[in-house]
Structure to design on (349 residues):
């Protein structure tokens, strides 16, 4: 297991982050009913195996199974007698947590109420990484940032991050934080997979410029890239993706990617899912990849990705089949930028 610097901080986290969206026993018919099905005993085993494999980073959210994910995670760490300093806990705020108008969003009121509830469920006195889960189109960004800065000052939160925001909005928040002297976002949690590389257009360049860490969610595109779906799939395609078709993916492109990943998987004697994860892990701008599981055997398959080293030929094939279509202004930047570097105009023999 490798450990990477979290954003522009001195904190190091494992390249694999255990995602706990599957923790809880949500009501059938709800969105979480199609995702969560892990009770306390199973949560204990999954957390234990993850930590034994070198994982020190665990991600959850208050909205996952309406707080059950946080509760099961906190109890698992207590049951396993894990020293608090040995695990980096990340959670998120924004989602609907009640039927009242202020039980959602990134307002100061909802943030202050939610952090106390999350701390209680997690059975801890601080959250290592507290993230805004979505874009709040109502609350001014400065209100959100001031509330988060207060939490950092009080020691309830050590670092802050953001999820599912546009590049321009993150940049604006960073500018406001610098101007006001607030704690700044250190991480971006975003969807990224071999079948969905849109992040590379604007968000990745911005992150590299601002030294933000990237936490990747759904690297298997909700299981679509696991090898269980599409032409040539050995099984019947059962699983979460069969009942919950998310995130949106161009299926034709996904099947083309899976076909090449099958070749690479056979070459290395691993699963298609392992190749999909290893491809994301190989990207230099990725800090950590969030993996989830309902069973220990699923977890072991995902953890195997850290041992797979894709060679240059593998990466070339995978990059080519998953390449983004040219989009303005990207294709113009590439054209006009050619010849700008000194090496491009050195005398030729």
């Amino acid at each position: 297991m490798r450990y990477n610097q979290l954003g522009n901080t001195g904190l190091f986290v494992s390249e694999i982050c255990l995602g706990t969206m599957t923790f809880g026993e949500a009501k059938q018919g709800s969105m979480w009913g199609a995702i969560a099905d892990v009770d306390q005993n199973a949560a204990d085993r999954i957390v234990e195996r993850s930590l034994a494999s070198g994982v020190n980073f665990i991600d959850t959210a208050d909205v996952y199974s309406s707080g059950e994910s946080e509760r099961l995670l906190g109890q698992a760490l207590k049951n396993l007698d894990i020293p608090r300093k040995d695990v980096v806990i990340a959670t998120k705020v924004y989602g609907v947590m009640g039927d009242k108008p202020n039980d959602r969003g990134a307002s100061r009121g909802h943030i202050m109420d939610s952090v106390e509830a999350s701390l209680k469920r997690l059975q801890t006195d601080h959250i290592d990484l507290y993230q805004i889960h979505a874009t709040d189109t109502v609350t001014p960004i400065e209100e959100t940032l001031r509330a988060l800065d207060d939490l950092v000052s009080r020691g309830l939160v050590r670092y802050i991050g953001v999820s599912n925001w546009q590049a321009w909005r993150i940049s604006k928040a960073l500018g406001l934080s610098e101007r006001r002297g607030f704690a700044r976002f250190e991480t971006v949690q975003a969807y990224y997979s071999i079948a969905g590389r849109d992040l590379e257009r604007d968000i990745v360049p911005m992150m590299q410029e601002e030294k933000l860490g990237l936490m990747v969610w759904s690297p298997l595109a909700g299981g679509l890239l696991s090898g269980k779906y599409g032409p040539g799939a050995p099984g019947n395609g059962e699983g979460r993706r069969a009942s919950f078709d998310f995130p949106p993916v161009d299926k034709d492109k996904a099947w083309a990617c899976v076909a090449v990943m099958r070749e690479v998987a056979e070459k290395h004697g691993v699963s298609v899912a392992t190749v999909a994860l290893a491809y994301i892990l190989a990207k230099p701008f990725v800090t950590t990849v969030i993996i989830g599981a309902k069973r220990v055997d699923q977890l072991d398959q995902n953890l195997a990705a850290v041992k797979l080293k894709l060679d240059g030929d593998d990466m070339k094939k995978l990059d080519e089949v998953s390449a983004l279509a040219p989009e303005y202004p990207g294709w113009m930047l590439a054209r006009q930028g050619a010849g700008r570097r000194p090496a491009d105009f050195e005398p030729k023999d």
